[in-house]
Amino acid sequence: MSFEITERDLAGRAGVLLTRRGEVETPCLMPVINPVKNLIPARELKDNFGFKMIITNSYLILKHFGHEAPDVHQLVGYDGAIMTDSGAYQLLIYGGVETDPHEIVKFQERIGSDIGVILDTPTGGFASRTDAEKTVEETIRRARLSLEWREDPTMLWAGPIQGGRYLDLIRRSARTMGRLDFQTHPLGSPVQIMEGYDYSTLVDMIVAAKLSLPPDRPLHLFGAGHPMMLALAVALGCDLFDSAAYALFAKDDRYLTVRGTFRLDRLTELPCNCPVCSRYSQKDLLEMPKKEREENLARHNLYVTASEMKAIRQALKEGGLWELVEARSRAHPKLYEAYKRLGKYAKYLEENDPVIGKEVKGIFIYDKHSLARPEVMRHRKRVIENYSRPPGKEIGVFIPNPPERPYIKSKEYKYAAEILSGQEFHICFYGEPFGVVPSELSETFPLSQYECSEGIGMNVAKELKKFISANAYRKVFIIDPRSTMVIEGAKTLRSIDEIRGQLDEDSP
Ligand SMILES: [Zn+2]
């Protein structure tokens, strides 16, 4: 086993990928290195920026240095784990490569790559269905052959998942590739989809791949490296990333932040405290020779990316990934749309999110989209499907969530419990964000460890109705000072004091 999962939050995982150059902590982002001449010396990426693994292109090495190329670590000057790409990206962009699947597999073994990629046929973001289908089948064919050709058992191999934006093809591709002896799986084609900011489609693609892959295989979101979208991708279950963005954007005088990309000449401040931004002003950078500016911008872009990966790993470990995704989604309306798309996959997130073993941390509910988070979903589902009221408690009394928490320590509850002292009363709370909370459960996580902004637009009446009909009470009272909560089979009262009167009236 080369991958071990140590912690989870949502569908995100923290883990360790074991390579022959040591352990690599995931989620992990690999800066893309140009093997011929890189803007930033590769050894600095580990020593100064903390990147434990990098990715370079074996096809470019083969083209430039031929079969006499030295060991890839020696060539690029990096002693950590190195993944090599196969030229498939060049195949997608230029329509052809001067190598073949066999040659590039053997070449990657020979130059000592720690993780190799087979020469697959990328679907791309704009392929027709017929073409997409062909790329999936051809990639599978090449994958089977490539696994037969490999000889070095200590090297890891990546089996790309194709299918483009056709989700059924992604599922087919992931199912088949997942059965083959690969150690990681890159998801192809996101670059062109992200260029159009189509993050919602990206969410669909990631979930389609995840649901069809064995859970113990790391998923690599190929070509995705903008810091603003990394938290979302991790939350969905991506483990590996690569970034050429740091260098590409720098070349174009663009400055990366978690709030988006900015043109250097449009900034008046450098909103960052990395070594570059502490030393230079925006004006200094603009006045530098182009090459020097590009290098400094690339460094800043790397710092901000490394720092976001740290923030993500920290959030994941403390169970705060949802809040981070929610905050980052405000960087761009399309990213916010993708965040809202999580609602469609609430079940997927809930099933992957750990129920136990997670640090108990208060959850924040900002608006109705936060209701898709696993803690809320889980309670709402379980309180209907797996719960039955305590025996003998035949009269349901529903009171609005009191401000104090846990609810059963509130003065509202104490008062209700005092005047309804009979065995037959079952006191429950209702309101946002959990719908119905039976009093005997109100101390369990997260029912008293949350903060919710007011009026998030949950349909509380619907939750009450479901709960009441699932529990077959003899009588039901809903306490609602505004008398707006009207539900069939229940009596709505303005105050708890009216209950005794009601019961006296009913009994002869
Ligand atoms: Zn900076």
UniProtKB/TrEMBL annotation:
> Quick one: which residues bind substrate?
D120
Name of the coding gene: tgtA
Residue ranges annotated as transmembrane are: none
Q: Which residues bind Zn(2+)?
A: C272, C274, C277
Q: Extract one GO BP annotation from the record.
A: tRNA wobble guanine modification
Question: What is the required cofactor set for this protein?
Answer: Zn(2+)
In terms of SUPFAM superfamilies, this protein maps to: tRNA-guanine transglycosylase, Uracil-DNA glycosylase-like
- In its keyword annotation, does this UniProt entry include Hydrolase? no
Instruction: Write out the similarity annotation.
Output: Belongs to the archaeosine tRNA-ribosyltransferase family.
Q: How is the cofactor bound?
A: Binds 1 zinc ion per subunit.
Name of the protein in question:
tRNA-guanine(15) transglycosylase
Q: Does the keyword Transmembrane helix apply?
A: no
**GO CC annotation:** cytoplasm
* Gene Ontology molecular function: pentosyltransferase activity; zinc ion binding
Give the EC number.
2.4.2.48
Q: Which residues form the tRNA-guanine(15) transglycosylase-like domain?
A: 12-333
The positions flagged as active site in the entry are D85
Catalytic activity field: guanosine(15) in tRNA + 7-cyano-7-carbaguanine = 7-cyano-7-carbaguanosine(15) in tRNA + guanine
